[in-house]
Amino acid sequence: MTTENKEHRRIKSYVLRTGRITGSQEQALENLFPLYGVTCPTNNQVLNLEEIFPENKGVIVEIGFGMGTSLVEMAKANQANNYLGIEVHTPGVGNALKLIEQEQLNNLKVACHDAIEILQALPENSIAGLQLFFPDPWHKARHHKRRIVNAEFMRLVTRALVPGGFVHMATDWENYAEHMLEVLNATPELENTASDGMYIPRPDHRPLTKFEQRGHRLGHGVWDLYFIKK
Question: Residue ranges of the domains in the chain?
Fold first, then answer.
């Protein structure tokens, strides 16, 4: 690899861990991904959301949905919206596909791909919201450069958001919450909805995950941020 290529190689905000995949998850990836899966276009082509979601509803993108349980719950409870979930962990994608099929949801599709490349493929002013819940905090100082929330990420997000669209983030790492708040406040297209200019209480539409419930029992805090595109 040349020095120039090293300089332009994007630092990944995640480590790709395939993990142990069950037979049913593997079967879901094979049989259900053609029904509920989204493939990132190549050669700088645009992701056609109208083709993915024929019903004319606002599209909410969630990055890093884990095993898909809370995203499926949210999509089931909010049929007025379409949801596009992005996750690189194949067992999680397989599990989400099983849940989508089980609930027979037509307003949720999933992509097993790098979220940055998906954002780059989205048309301008095309999504109603962006959700990022409990991303990898990369808590060691030397790894902070891997955090997905940065100025370039927000440029892609605000480009894709419709006016009035939202950015909703949540983390259980206070240092990362402070970092998120700093980056979002520095994004001129966005406006904080918190009355004190800081964080909001967890809204009812964000399901409380088992991971979060365990954190509450251990005394961990959770910080929600909710910004609107001007």
Answer: 45-229
Displacement of CA 172 from its chain's centroid (Å): 16
Q: Binding site for S-adenosyl-L-methionine: which residues?
A: 62, 87, 114, 136
Distance in angstroms (rounded) separating the CA atoms of residues 49 and 162: 14
Q: Which tens digit of pLDDT belongs to each residue from 34-73?
A: 999 999 999 889 999 999 999 989 999 999 999 999 999 9
Residue type, 38: V
Catalytic residues: 136
Q: What is the pTM (predicted TM-score) of this model?
A: 0.90
Using alpha carbons, list the distances in angstroms from residue 28 to 18, 19, 99, 104: 15, 16, 10, 14
What does 13-74 look like in DSSP terms, one character per residue?
SS--------HHHHHHHHHTHHHHB----STTPPP-HHHH--S--EEEEEE--TTSHHHHHH
Domain 45-229 part of CATH 2.40.30.10: no
